[in-house]
Structure formats: C-alpha cells, structure tokens
Amino acid sequence: MRKFLTAEWSDLIMANYEVDPSLLADRVPHGTELDLHEGRCFVSLVGFMFLNTRVLGIPIPFHVNFEEVNLRFYLKREMPDETRRGVCFIKESVPRSAIAFVARTLYGEPYEAVPMSNDRSQGRVAYSWDRNDLVAMLGPSIGVPSAGSHGEFVIEHYWGYTKRSSDRTDEYKVEHPKWELRDVEANEIAVDFGRVYGSEFAPLSDLEPHSVLFARGSEIAVYKGSKLSG
Question: Domain with 69 in it: what CATH number?
C-alpha cells in the first residue's frame, strides 16, 4: 500500500462518552459493525494537532500545521485471518477551508472549516473551535495502556471507514507506534454537541465523559484508501 499522507499527531485529548448503540446504527458503514468494549459503546471527542503534514511526500503551503477536532465512533471488520478495528467520523473540524473541501468532495469525509485555536503548555492543552472548548490539565505519564484496557481500546484502532452510500464503504489504514498516556488531572469540556454534531448528540453536553485520556502522539502515516470488498 502507498502512503498517502504523513504527519505528526500531537497532544491528543480524547473525551469518551458511553452511548446507546442505537444512536449510531444508521451511521455504521456497510461491511462493518460497531466495536464495543466490555459491552459498552463509545463515541470520542478528539482534539489534536496536525504537524509537519505532507501529502504524497509534499508539504502544502499554509496547510502543514493546524488543529483538528473530531467526533468519532468505533468499528470492526471481521476478516478470514484478522479483525480490523477502526473508526468512523461523525464530523471533523479544521481551520483550513481547502482541507475541508478536498476531504468532502474527493473522499466523502465529513469535514468542516471553522475558526480554531490551541493553547499548549507543559501542563495544559486546550482546543477551541466554533465557540466550543476542550481542555485537559495534565499529570505525569502513566505509560502504554495494558492489553484489553479501556485506554488501549480508544487509541489502538488502525483503520478508517467512510460511509459513501448505503452499500459502499471506503477503507484506509493508519499506522503509528503505540502511544503512552499521561494522567488527566482535570478537564473542561464546554461543547454544544447538538448544534455542532446534530440533535441526537445534544444529551452529551450534559453528560460526564466516561473517561478523558491524553496522548503525546507520534509520527503517523495514512495509506491510500480503497473501496471495501467482501
């Protein structure tokens, strides 16, 4: 497979909410199924930095370093010799209109362009977008999450799935090393989920997240996608 995009994903805040699986049933791409952890279904609000971004090895002027915040849920695809665990996006917000346009029109990804900012220091990381805020106050490293843990479930998904139509799904691979987590000692989440992500997600605005995780991140590679077969 050919690397389509390389970058660093840095300073990832992941706020994880337990939801009823029925909330996501109509969004599950053909050929996949919801991936649950210990019988629980999660959506994650993820804020992070795209750094040193290159498409086919080429940096695009003014589109190398930028914020992204997305709302995602978890899928799996059963193969004869493996289970591919991946994510599907409800909405992805970035500050660059060209990125959002290309992602929507060519790849069917639910991107939008909105004003965004970040504030990152040694002990605090914050992302702001469209009058929303996601903030984490950080403690020491707690290491790579153990096998089978909730933390491993959230960060160890290496495939992406895009629902292009009722019977078409695009699949792509994401590659990165295992991430270490840092303790999140406190968090501030001020997000109008209903306005940003749709009325069905409005209750999340008043719901305490099941967990808030933080990963420093790493270099990543996204491989050229293909139409799912089989």
Answer: 2.40.400.10
Domain presence at residue 98: yes
Euclidean distance between CA atoms 212 and 133, whole angstroms:
14
Domain count, the chain: 1
List phi, psi (to 5°) of 44: -130, 130
Q: What is the pLDDT of residues 151-203, one digit of tens each?
A: 999 999 999 999 998 889 999 999 999 999 999 999 999 999 999 999 999 99
Q: Which domain holds residue 51?
A: 3-224
**pLDDT tens per residue across span 70-88:** 999 999 999 999 999 999 9
Within-domain flag for 230: no
